[in-house]
Amino acid sequence: MSRNAVMLGGGQCKWGVREAHLVDLFQEAAKACLDDIPGLKPTDIDGLIVATSYAGRCSFQVNTAPVIAERLGLKPTSICTRCDTLCAGGSTGIILAKGLVESGNADMVMVTGGEKLYTPQKWEVFYSELASVDHDWDGVHGMGLPPPFFALTAQEHFMHYGSKKEDLAAVSVANYNYAADNPTAQMQKKITLEEAMAAPTVVPPLTLYDCCPITDGAAACIITTDEIAKRFSNRPFVYLRGTAQACLNSVSANFPGAHLADWKHTRIAAEKAYGRAKVSPGDIKVAQTHDCFTISEVIEVEELGFCKKGEGGQFCGSKQIEIGGKVPVNTDGGLLAVGHPFGATGIRQGIEIMKQLQGRARHQVKDADIGLTHNLSGANAEHTIVIYGKTPVK
Amino acid sequence: MSVTGIPILDNLYPATMDMWPIEAKEFNRSWPFYENLKQGRFTTTKCKDCGNVSYPPRVICPACYSENLEFIDLPKTGKVVVFSEEVKGVPLGFESPLIHAVVDLGVDPVRRLLTRIVNCQAGQLKRGDEVQLAVFDIPAMPVEKGRAGTIMAERVFFAFEPVKK
Question: Is the predicted ipTM greater than 0.90, yes or no?
């Protein structure tokens, strides 16, 4: 009998500028995760995947998985490892866990991710960000902190497709408003289009609300099979229907599209994930896309097929990403407002899709049965997609 | 208030906190790129077996995995396709304005080289402007050489700058 991977439950700690150590954040997230699955004990878990990228740099800790396993009271016997794909670390862990449980190499895997980025002097994390892109060829040009790269991306989208600053501001408004009542979010305030348009400049055309913050935080979820999940939960199953991860370049000079607003690698990943999930873009009822910047969400809704290429600005500007729109996007607030502790983000997104498909999301999309998460990592160097559904792929 | 460094690291050089590449040939087989840069040349590797030119330089050909590579010269002038200017909040290690541009050097694989533009004031650059290679010194890196003691490895890096009209 085939084994089908599901997300059984999950949770995250409060994200923001946290007065806590990296291992504290992982413990808080694991507690939130087990609180979501009454009856599940640490001893039921036989695998652990830890997604973190900056533990080595900011917490002077490599080989993170045993450290976290011990702090969480876990004694994994199937897998105990770390994965580092920066912004996609959490989603990568979910993809790996799916393979492990469906192949029978693990039964119940905790996928957790987190970062403690702020150190006692703030310059250090900004400086260390030179490592987030290809260090020797892009980082050294001052491309470590991403606003300049995405400012160029926005300019090329404006040039080629006629999108406008107002379209970017519409994404800020939607995502901030989704997060306003999310107690785990870094930013918990509603903003207006006028406030978004009048915000201080970061790198033109990007202003304050166009950019996600730097965030301390962690999240954790449990990936297991539907048969095992039955013993722990009466909620609807949330299956991991299809996944993909595409990487065509690292150095920005080798960007695969015709220009920075043409995301060929997103399209390749999407086509593969849709094919494996046996769904099409029109089936997606809710999505969590990688809104590290507003322009990212504008391009993602195009490349994921929610609208035509070039019409992402109009799609977002006409509220199609809000509840009642064509595809509500980043319904918990996204990276822009919940924050972005790199390794934790994909897990946060997966948890929100799980809650949407189980009918228990804070901003519920009616009759959501298929959902999608998407990440990009580095200087737009890799794209990672997970498609969830209430039924397994037949 | 002045902040002291980490006492046990006094007089020691943490290369892991140095923002520039470790270019010395003892640590980097692409060292000829940096040596060529010191001569004002912008170079990369070409495969002598299959002809593939890749940027940045490699020690194997990414197309055929041959190790039979040679350094070739790339153009040193190009045109600005698109650029961004960061004036406030420029990260440590860089001066305001921090200008980035996609530069078309006219040949593959550097039709869309993303680089920093230096010697340029904010508000001066335009799309289509011609820019040229600008090589500059960066701090030397101390490298332990056994009994020979520690040598200072001289280093340069590059950006592009507007061509003066």
Answer: yes
